[in-house]
Design goal:
The chain is an alpha/beta fold. It is built from 29 helices and 16 strands. Helices cover 64% and strands 12% of the residues. The N and C termini lie far apart (98 Å).
């Protein structure tokens, strides 16, 4: 149907109903007799056409159209008696029969909908639900509105019998509507479904009102109640008209055969609601209560029995279906297992992406080579790792990353075959490869092979539309000089590779050159684990001054280690090892305890508000009890949290993990300030400054060192200071060593400074004597 036709019909229907409504308000007999059947016939025609052309179930539309047709026929006969025969149809029993037919067909239309829903319950459950709802509604209406006319209904005459049948039909429709609502309340109902449901509700409410008026002898022909009847039929017509205008898919429900479906309890509550309403309106009546209780108990018993039977039948059907599926699956599975075994044999030694050998095959081959190696024969393991490969995956996607791996694998394989090295080439990890040689090679020959590999793989990789340059780090270990066991050889190669990676891009490292460094590292790690913190470690304090006024505002706690055997060990030597081994957590806790106790003592003794800067390592930040320990120390010393400043390096802040953000927030909530240490070095990013609550930026010493000679460094420092001021963050210059540096920093607007110009890190007693007892201002100390 075209939109213009749809709009025209809508306009005609509106004009018609408005005219009929005016006639009904005036109770016009002639216009009522003319217009009423006209609306019913129009609804009949539209519904019949929709039923013939729609995809919706035909019988639903057929019964709805027959309801309109029977109503029109009754109206026409009524008009004939009233206008032609001058009789009073209101008192004739034949019209009770005729006006019963629309309700009968409406009930059939609703029931036809339920029958078409194959996924709904069985017809037994459906019938039981509708009858239970109808009985409860009938009892409620009877108890509340009709109990005083009981003797009229007990009189056995045609009029009362027809009236009672009409009432039963209307309550049957009401029960159907309640069940329909419960069934569709969670579904997405199309427009036509909503219109039809409104039409059903409007019709049954009007029919019940009409029956009540008739029962009370209050019905007036051609009044507003008749107009509402026609409105209900026109609403059905609206559904048909919409279906012709915008056809929709047949309305389906999502209900399945399930004894524990969610609407079951809701229906029980509705049944229990009926006696509650009756008691609230008319008070408690034992006879009525007994009827309601009987309906509820009978419904629960029969519903449980039906659902139990349905469930058994459903389980039996499922069992049969599963048996048949199982037989098919067993045959399919047998064939699949044969194919899987074949693929497993391939996968057991082949990488799925590059088609090179995999880690398992490397291990098996290496074990065999170690068993068969000649005394004078060497095995070289070149452990290759691609630099910044994660960046490629993150920036271009894993598909591009896989293509890069395939290309690198092809180049390694080509390098091996072209030079006839007879090496084992394999991919042993995400971006890690092994190039394993066995034979009589000199050191410089291995270096030549490595340079060929780096040159070959360093050529640009073109994957349209991208052109990628790949670098790699290579660690080399040799049998039998470095180790004789497979696990030791692989570990040594991995260690050498990571040392090569730390040197830059396209670097390689022989494990043999690392042995002294690794030995020293192991000794430091061992001594760290054995160290007595109170005897071997000392916390030194370096003063921090406000540049404007040269005022002492605080100090930074710095850790020093003096081992009885190793002597004085520099922080850049033992801190990374402590971090790696986990010793940094108890050691950092010890430093934090010392620093908190010291600032509490100094500020209380000298009545000052100095700030103690405490460095926190990444491992400490990841510790689950860091915040709790810090909070306990603050409360134990009974100091304001503003006396403490937690210093973290810039690379930690840039990580951006959620847990880091939570930790920084928790530190800020304690009232402790946070400083970014070494700001301006590495791959600085300004984005993290807006995510976290920082109080200070400590400008890195390398920038300060060149501030007197390098204009670029001056501009960088100036930019950092401007950023800090715009964000309300103080700036601190680290490593200030001369007056000229301090003067430039003051001109640039830097807030605070520390460094050898003011003092080296000092023991607590010396610091106290120099800065707290004798000198209170940085200006006096400098002069």
């Amino acid at each position: 149907m075209k939109k213009s036709t749809y709009s025209l019909i809508q306009l005609i229907l509106v004009v018609y109903f408005t005219t009929y409504l005016i006639a009904a308000t005036r109770e016009s007999v002639i216009w009522g007799d003319i217009l009423s059947p006209l609306g019913a016939i129009t609804s009949f025609i539209l519904l019949l056409i929709a039923g013939l052309k729609t995809k919706q179930p035909f019988f639903i539309w057929l019964f709805a159209s027959l309801a309109c047709f029977s109503y029109a026929a009754a109206d026409i006969l009524w008009a004939f008696y009233e206008l032609v025969l001058r009789a009073q149809p209101n008192n004739m029993d034949i019209f009770l029969v005729l006006y019963l037919l629309p309700s009968f067909f409406i009930a059939l239309s609703l029931y036809a909908f339920f029958v078409t829903q194959k996924s709904y319950w069985t017809n037994y459950q459906l019938t039981l639900d509708i009858l239970a709802m109808s009985a409860a509604l009938l009892t409620l209406i009877w108890t509340v509105f009709l109990h005083k006319q009981f003797e009229m209904l007990t009189a056995l005459n045609i009029h009362n019998t027809l009236f009672f049948i009409t009432l039963l039909t209307d309550f049957f429709i009401s029960g159907c509507l309640i069940i329909l609502f419960l069934l569709l309340r969670k579904d997405k109902i199309p427009v036509i479904g909503k219109i039809t449901f409104i039409a059903f509700v409007c019709y049954v409410l009007t029919a019940l009102s009409y029956n009540y008026l008739c029962f009370q002898n209050l019905y007036i022909p051609h009044s507003l109640i008749d107009a509402v009847f026609i409105f209900s039929l026109l609403t059905f017509a609206q559904a048909g008209l919409w279906e012709l205008y915008k056809p929709e898919k047949p309305l389906k429900t999502n209900q399945t055969i399930d004894p524990d479906y969610s609407s079951s309890k809701l229906k029980g509550l509705i049944l229990l609601l009926a006696p509650i309403i009756a008691i609230l309106i008319n008070g408690f009546n034992f006879a009525s209560f007994l009827v309601f209780l009987t309906i509820f108990m009978a419904y629960q018993f029969l519903s449980n029995y039906i659902q139990f039977s349905i469930n058994n039948e459903h389980l039996l059907a499922q069992e049969k279906a599963m048996n048949s599926i199982l037989e098919v699956r067993i045959a399919e599975r047998t064939q699949e297992l044969q194919q899987v075994n074949y693929h497993l044999e391939i996968l057991s030694k082949q990488d799925s992406i590059t088609n090179l050998f995999n880690r398992r095959h490397v291990f098996n081959t290496l074990d065999k080579m170690l068993e068969e190696a000649e005394p004078t024969e060497s095995i070289y393991i070149l452990y290759i790792d691609l630099d910044r490969f994660k960046t490629i995956n993150d920036s271009y996607g894993h598909d591009i990353g896989d293509n890069v791996l395939i290309e690198i694998a092809n180049r390694l394989d080509y390098c091996n075959q072209f030079n006839e090295y007879n090496a084992l080439v394999a991919r042993v990890g995400g971006d890690e490869f092994v190039f394993m040689l066995c034979g009589y090679y000199k050191h410089d020959e291995i270096e030549t092979i490595i340079r060929e590999i780096i040159q070959s793989c360093g050529e640009p990789i073109i994957i349209p539309p991208y052109k990628l340059n790949i670098s790699m780090s290579i660690g080399i270990t040799q049998y039998p000089q470095d180790a004789c066991e497979r696990s030791e050889l692989m570990k040594n190669a991995d260690i050498a590779m990571y040392y090569a990676k730390s040197q830059g891009f396209n670097k390689y490292m022989f494990y043999s050159t690392l042995s002294p460094k690794i030995h020293q590292k192991n000794i430091i790690e061992l001594k760290l684990k054995e160290a007595d913190f109170d005897k071997e470690f000392e916390v030194l304090y370096q003063p921090l001054f406000r540049i404007a006024g040269n005022t002492l505002i605080g100090m930074e706690a710095l850790l020093r280690w003096n081992n009885p055997e190793l002597g004085s060990v520099f922080p850049d030597q033992f801190i990374p090892i402590a971090e790696e081994s986990g010793v940094i957590i108890p050691l950092g806790h010890w430093v934090m305890k010392k620093a908190v106790s010291q600032i509490a003592q100094w500020n209380e003794m000298y009545d000052m508000q100095l700030i103690m800067g405490i460095n926190i390592s990444p491992r400490q930040l990841e510790s689950i009890d860091l915040i709790e320990c810090l909070d306990q120390m603050i409360h134990k010393q009974a100091i304001p949290p503003q006396w403490l400043d937690i210093e973290i390096t810039e690379n930690i802040a840039m990580k951006g993990e959620t847990y880091m953000e939570e930790i920084f927030t928790q530190i800020s909530e304690l009232g402790v300030s946070i400083s970014i240490d070494d700001f301006g070095t590495g791959y600085s990013s300004l984005s993290y400054l807006k995510h976290y609550s920082f109080d200070r930026l400590k400008i890195a010493k390398p920038l300060i060192d060149n501030v007197t000679t390098d204009v670029n460094d001056v501009q960088i420092i100036k930019a950092i200071i401007m950023i800090g001021k715009s964000l309300g963050i103080e700036t601190i210059a680290e490593g200030v060593e001369c007056q000229e540096q301090l003067k430039i920093l003051a001109e640039l607007g830097c807030d605070e400074a520390q460094g050898y110009l003011f003092s080296r890190p000092l023991p607590a007693s010396v610091f106290e004597q120099m800065f707290l007892k004798e000198v209170l201002y940085a200006g006096q100390f400098i002069s």
